[in-house]
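Handoff note, outgoing to incoming analyst
You'll be picking up this chain. Sequence as last confirmed:
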Amino acid sequence: MKNISLYLFAVIALFGASCTNQGFKKTKSGLMYKITSDGKGQPAKKGEFLKLNVIEKIRDSVILDTKTSMPAYIRVDSSRGDYSPGEIFGLLRKGDSAVVVQLADTLARKYGQLPPFIKKKDKITIIFKVVEVFPTEEAVTADRNKEVEKEKEAAVSMRPAEIKAVEEYLASNKINAEKTAKGTYVLVKSVGEGPQADSGMQVSVRYTGKAFPSGKVFESNVPGAEGNKGNNEPLKFVIGTGAMIQGMDDGVRKFKKGGKGTLYVPAFLAYDQQPGPSRKPFENLIFEIEVIDVTTAPAAPTGPMMPNMPQQGNPQQH
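Most recent structure output, in case you need it:
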């Protein structure tokens, strides 16, 4: 591609800087950060809202990239010195780029046990691009609604090649899967009993991820199963929060506690143009799942921004 956006150049520059820590400052809590700004305009005030494009990275894996999903909207508040990105939000202007580096061992000391995919010596790099600054929550709601409409319009096209590949696979293998409104194909082997998995509920899931169409296992959290790399804990997430790839979030809604089935996920509901588990873009995926539990969602954490496991941008965690 001949034309590369200024945003991409900024990301490359900031990622490069994060590897050496050159030019970084520290907050009172020890959080490393660097801001690239033209200095025009006033920094966001307390009570205003930042519209952000966000990239999170651990080691060589990008675990979140809002350029392929909804942007983040975050309220600027007084810094609590809590070793979180919120410490620098009051320094940012529209158009600014910033990078924050969190050390995993520091996070563990401050907030306890980390998700198993984060190692003690890891650095968590979070890059922000300030798209807009809004004065009120009403303005945020109006803009978010516009973004939602854009997503709906994109969903209408639903990448015909991806859908065709899944449908041909299901037909040739005589698999009678149901297509959801969003586009996930779900084979329900057992619905389960008890609470229904739905928006706002927390689910605990055993899963085995497979490449499409080969069926080769790339990851599992089922004890003793092929692809299990020592992670025997059920995957817990709150439905509808954007913590999971859309296909997983969408597909589990067909089940209750104890339900079992298979999800056939077109790429646009997985990692889209980002490399998937097989390191290829536009990769369809298969998940064998069992919903171990469905419970009321816990209270939202008050700690630092942390990468949930697994997110849309993390092809190693699903």
